[in-house]
Amino acid sequence: MRKRPGLAWFAVVFVVVVAVAAVALIYALRVDKSTTSSPEPAPPTVVQRINPVAAAAPVPTPAGIAQEIKPALANPDIADVTGQITDAATGQVLWSHDPDEKRTPASTTKLLTVSAALLALPPDATLTTNVVQGPGGQLILVGAGDPTLSVQPDGQPTFYTDAPRISALADQIRAKGLDPTSIAIDTGAFTGSDWDSTWDRDDIAGGNLTPIQPLIADGGRLQPLKDYSPRTATPALDVGKTLAADLGVSGAVTTATAPAGAPVVASVKSAPLLTRLGDMIRDSDNILAETVSIEISRATGGPASLAGGVAAVQNVLTTNQFDLGSTFLHDTSGMSTANLISPDTLDHVLLGAASGQNPKLRPLLDMLAIGGVDGTLSDRFAANGVAGWVRAKTGTLTGVNTLAGIVQDTDGRVLTFALMAGGDINKSRLGLDAVASSLRGCGCR
């Protein structure tokens, strides 16, 4: 286990119970990366308040923590649990079990991806999708790597927050009085393979993945507003076809390279980085994770490829003094079963945000799903009295369950935690939730 230096607490208000409407809006039932489900609980009543955190809040003791979580850990469904619990103000490890053991992290991998993005990119960074003039009346749609671009018409909801629309491109083209003869797509912004070798092609129809191309609409969803909609196998081509249909242009959509200096006739911008990262973490969006990692690679001088994104995430974290140990990443979304991360590493990343050790990471805490309220935790923590107190990132693959986040105990002390387990998805999920929920009951002295 790595030793942690003392971390200076800083005078800010730590928001754990966020301002939420009295009747919380519960998203569609989902178990992150799971094909199983359980009955959706009734929406919890969440009192709207902000709970300040004081540096003088009593610190739980290791013995007290161990005693508090002992009943939950005794559950045989999570007998192979590994993890770590840390006091955010001091960096003191309060409990751990095999914290250096590297395991498949599933979507908690995204904690590394979002942290690297916060460290390497401006918070207001946007991506611009352009349409430029090609030869002979052709218009060329130039991809920028923004998968939030939407097929939804103006005035209709979009899956991603403040998403740009293909219809807006069409409106701008019509407003200029252009009558295009054909539509082409330029996908040269990305290099290398658009598919990781460890991914399963069945996850396209399964609603988890689409080929990572610089033109993607609605994350590749065939049903634009549905999280686990089947995805397209040809995302860039589909975007071109949508623009052609909006403009009434017949004929096949082709691939082309935009001429250097070609006039821009239409453009739309993505939402700022912080908005996109929030969507990525709360809803565990794989496509955003992979495209954001490529954005990091480009910004730091690396290749605009999946492999470049993996290298960039690790390089940025290491450069910012995060000891990744022998962490191994094959992708940046967590869909790869080849990824290996330890609970200690996940906890250390969360500690960087919760301690104030690196102010750039602070927004990560606001992006985490809120237990019993939203995102991948909308159907978790609602029935045990801790809704609103646990904020975490989930991760689930076959035989893998992970949960990493923060919780404020009854004395107002903030704890970070990272828990990993195997076994039955639903049973181990409930077991990990019980461990995290018990931390809310501390005291623990």
Largest sheet: 6 strands, antiparallel
What name does the CATH topology of the largest domain carry?
A: Beta-lactamase
Task: Point out poorly predicted stretches.
Answer: 1-41, 46-50
Task: Count every beta strand, where a strand is a DSSP E run of 2 or more residues.
Answer: 11
N- to C-terminal distance = 24 Å
Strand order of the largest sheet: 2-1-11-10-9-8
Report the β-strand fraction as a percent range: 5-15%
Mean pLDDT across residues: 89
Helix content: 25-40%
Q: At CATH's second level, what is the architecture of the largest domain?
A: 3-Layer(aba) Sandwich
What is the CATH class name of the largest domain? Alpha Beta
- Overall spatial form: elongated
Structural class comes to: alpha+beta
How many structural domains can be distinguished in the coordinates? 2
Element order: H for helix, E for strand: HEEHEEHEHHEEHHHHHEEEEH
Under CATH, the homologous superfamily of the largest domain reads DD-peptidase/beta-lactamase superfamily
- Rg, please? 23 Å
Brief digest:
With 445 residues, the protein is α+β, with helices and mostly antiparallel strands. It has helices at residues 62-73, 110-120, 166-175, 202-205, 235-247, 273-282, 286-299, 306-319, 343-354, 363-367, 425-440, and strands at residues 82-87, 93-97, 128-133, 138-142, 182-186, 254-255, 264-269, 369-370, 390-397, 400-408, 414-421.
